[in-house]
């Protein structure tokens, strides 16, 4: 079964976590809405925990998440122009993968660069 592009049900042109959960239920009807919510939350929680530990996350065909370290610096208060110290911090950073970049741009992804398709779902009730 090929995964089709997700069609957002929201009218704002963005996809929310709720839309993602609904998409999982639509693609895999054997799972209840609650099961899909637990799975989506587990994926996001695992990713958040890995980034908090400073680990890199790579999802082939999609992209990678890394933690970048920002040095302490002096910034400016835009209202007063006064110098303000900005503390060092760690920030999450996403680097888009080649396949995703091509698909978003509406270009064909060469067969040799495609990610493997997910396994087909067995019929509901099995």
Task: Let me know the average pLDDT.
Answer: 86
Main sheet, how many strands, which sense, barrel?
Answer: 3 strands, antiparallel
How many beta-strand segments? 5
Radius of gyration: 20 Å
What does this 3D model show about the protein?
- With 126 residues, this protein is an alpha+beta fold.
- The chain folds into two domains: 46 residues, no CATH class; 45 residues, IHF-like DNA-binding proteins (HU Protein, Chain A, Irregular), CATH 4.10.520.10.
- Helices cover 30% and strands 21% of the residues.
- It contains three helices and five strands.
- The strands form two sheets. The protein has a three-stranded antiparallel beta sheet with strand order 1-2-5. The protein has a two-stranded antiparallel sheet with strand order 3-4.
- α1 packs across α2.
- The protein starts with 16 loop residues before the first helix and ends in a 22-residue tail after the last helix.
- The relative contact order is 0.14.
- The model has no long low-confidence stretch (mean pLDDT 86).
Name some characteristics of this structure.
alpha+beta; 3 helices; HU Protein, Chain A; 21% strand; two-stranded antiparallel sheet; 126 residues
Task: Indicate the topology.
Blueprint: H1 17-27, H2 33-52, E1 57-59, E2 63-70, E3 73-76, E4 83-86, E5 89-96, H3 98-104
Antiparallel strand pairs: 1-2, 2-5, 3-4
Helix pairs in contact: 1-2
Summarize the entry for a quick read:
By secondary structure, the protein is α+β, with helices and mostly antiparallel strands.
